Amino acid sequence: MKKLFILFLVFVVALGFAEVKIQFWHAMGGWRIDLIQGMVNDFMKANPGIKVEVQYVGSYEEILAKTVASLQAGTPPHVVQLNEISTKKMIDSGVIVPVEDMIKKDPSFDKGKLLPQVVKYYSIGGKLYSMPWNSSTPLLFYNKTMFKQAGLDPEKPPRTFSEVISYSKKLLKKDDKGNIVRTGITWPLYAWFFEQWMAEQNKLLVDNNNGRTGNPTKVVFNNEAGLKIMEFWNTLTKEGLMINTKKGDWTAARQLFISQTVGMIITSTSDVALLVSEAAKQGFEIGAAYIPIPDGVQRAGVIIGGGSLWLIKQKNQAEIDAAWKLIKYLADVDPQIAWHKGTGYFPVRLDAKEKLEKEGYYKENPLHYIAIKQLLDTIPSYATMGAVVGAFPEIRSAIDNAVEKMLNGQLTPKQALEEAEREANKAIKQYF
C-alpha cells in the first residue's frame, strides 16, 4: 500500500512538471536562423519545463497566410513574428492576446524600459498590442573608398535628393563601349522607402492622422511630397544613375553594393552587420548616414520598420503563459544586445542601449549607433509614427506596381502616383 502511495505521488509530481510545448514562427532567413535558434536554446536552458519549436516559415506574407490557415485548422502557433504593416490586420482579427494584457498581470516586465518610438508604433489608443522585437529604419550606406576614387569627400555623404544625383554622376563609370560598369545608388523596389520619404516631409500616408485617430478611408500621398519622391526615383533611373531590383529583392540590392557595382545603397539598418563584414572582405571602407531627403525640406524623421512578436490565443493557459515567457525573454536586455550585434536591428530597450554605451560598443561600432540615433532624432508626429491600416500590404503593392511601371517607361511620375492612389483606395474600401 505504501509503495502504491509513493508511486501515486511520483505520478502527481510528474504531471505538475509536464513539459509545455510551444511554437515560434519567424521570418528571419540566412545567418539569422542560427542566431535565433541559439537565443531560444538559451531560453529553454533557463526554462527546462518549456520546449520551443522554432520554425523559419518564410516571408512575413507567408507567415501571415500560414497563420490564418493554422487558425482555421485549429492548430495555431503560439508566437509569430510579423512585419509592422500587419498591425491593424492582427488587431482586427481577434485571434491575439494583446501583450498589454499580459504586462498588466506581470510586474516583472517594465514597459517603460522600451524605446518610446517603437512602443508608439505598435500601440493604438495607448495599448501595446505586440512586442517590438526586430526594429529597423532605412539607412544610407556608402563606399568611402569609391568616394575617394571619384573625387568625393568620404566624410560628407549626400544629404538631399539633389546631392544624391550629383554624387551619382561622379560615381558613374562606363567602359570603352559606353556600357555602365559602375553607377551611383540602389535600393530595393519596395514601397517602404516611399513611406519613409513621406514621413521625412512630415506628410501622412492615409487620412485620419495615419489611421491613428480613426479607421482610414483613403490614402493622401498624391500630392507635392509624393511627386518629389517619384520624380527623384525616376530621374536616377532614366539617367542611369541607379540600378533597380525586382520588387522586394533586398538580396540583389545588397549584392550590387557588395560587388561595388554601385557606390551607395539605401537599405534596412538590419543589414549593418552583414555589410560591414562584406566590405571588409571586399577590401573597401564603408560609411553610413541618415537617408537623404528632398531639397528644401526640414528633416522630420523616419518610421519604425521590421517586425514584432504576436501572442496568439490558445485553449491552454499554460501554453499562453509559456509563450509570454519566451516573448519577454527575447525582448530582454542581453538577448536584445545579442540580436543587435548579430544583425543591426537596434535594441528595442533603453537599458540595452545604455549598457552598450557604457561598454563603449558604439565607439568601436559607429555604424550601429548611426542607425539608432536617426530614430532618436526623429520628431514625434502622426507622420513619423507610421500608418495603421488594415489594407497596408495591398497599399504597398499598389505603390510597388505603379513605381515599376514608371521605371519601365509606361507611366510618368504623376501618372504613377495617380494609379497608386486609385488602386490603394480600392484596397481600403474592400478591407471594410
From TrEMBL:
Q: Does the keyword Translocase apply?
A: no
Q: Name one Pfam family in it.
A: SBP_bac_8
Q: Which InterPro entries match?
A: Bact_solute-bd_prot1, SBP
Question: Does this entry carry the keyword Ion transport?
Answer: no
Question: Keywords assigned by UniProt?
Answer: Signal, Transport
Tell me the SUPFAM superfamilies matching this sequence: Periplasmic binding protein-like II (SSF53850)
Localization terms from the record: Cell envelope
**GO CC annotation, single:** cell envelope
Report the family membership: Belongs to the bacterial solute-binding protein 1 family.
PANTHER family per record: ARABINOSE-BINDING PROTEIN-RELATED, SN-GLYCEROL-3-PHOSPHATE-BINDING PERIPLASMIC PROTEIN UGPB
Q: Write down what this protein is called.
A: Carbohydrate ABC transporter substrate-binding protein, CUT1 family (TC 3.A.1.1.-)
Organism of derivation: Fervidobacterium gondwanense DSM 13020
What is the phylogenetic placement of the source species in the record?
Bacteria, Thermotogati, Thermotogota, Thermotogae, Thermotogales
